[in-house]
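Structure ticket #2291
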Amino acid sequence: MSHSIYTPRQQYVLLIVCLLVLAGLVLFGLGSYITGLFGAGILYVVLRPWWAALVHRRHWNRQLASATLLTFALVVIILPFTALTLMLVNRLQFYAVHTDTTQLMAVLHAFERRIGVSFTADQNVQTLIRQGLGWLSQRLPSLASGLLHFVIVIGLMLFTLYFMFVQEEGFLHGLRRYLPFRDATLRELGEALRNNVHANVLGQALISLVQAILTGLLLWVFKVPDALFWGMVSFFMAFIPVLGTPLVWGPAALVKLAQGHTGQGVGILLLGLVVVMNIDNLLRIVLARRIGDIHPLVTLVGVILGVEIFGILGLVIGPLLLSYFMVLMRVFERENRHRPAPADTAAQP
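Resolution: structure written out below.
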């Protein structure tokens, strides 16, 4: 009878190492497709109250209720958001190729003459514009360059979401069994997930939509070219706390002022500050009481982190990851605080 050369402790450590290595290979193999799994988790949190109402209260068949909600998510959430994103990508790519930077430089120089301060260098501004447009187009998905990738991500998202609903009890039991956290920590993580998804999906999407409509109307009233497109841009910019839509209507007002349209420029600035910004603050106060409140700094840093890693879906995933990190840090602090101090074996004088 052969005996293992490893002690039980070594076997335990090697088992953990093997699990971590295999998990790393799985994540590496999934690559960018892992956004489909994150998307499924987000949609599960958003749609679960409706699923519970259909299955537990109205006693619908699980498969029928799941298929109904998946169809709703595809038609009402996924396809419109994807179409909006692709329209934005196509227009950004068009601007990246066809933008005449000499016209923009003329506007900037006119603005410099009006304020009496020189702050631009032609080459630097042109390089900055092209780099900015290129960075945005790389972070946003494009059907032209990745139709198969898009189909696989959406299919993986819907497939995962379907089984999360149909086999909900087994899914939740597996999470509780295999996640290395206590019940209190799991409840805290679940609460953080609900708050973040509600604040950054339901709440922020509603705020962004209202601000996009107001910004588009504001620019259209004051005759800014391509107001519909810039309203669409403001929808995504509104996910960024503090900065948000001023990144859209602010430059438009400066361009109007530089072109000599003082009334239009001042009107955009005043209405942007008084109406668009205040609507944002009012909606955030109201929604924070109803669907969860996330600190603006967490959202801002999370958006930067998420967009860099996950693209457009990082607007939601980034703040979620940062919130989870903060929750686990609180758990670590709490566990260390309650851990008994080691006995003092030093000799007493």
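Closing remark: The radius of gyration is 26 Å.
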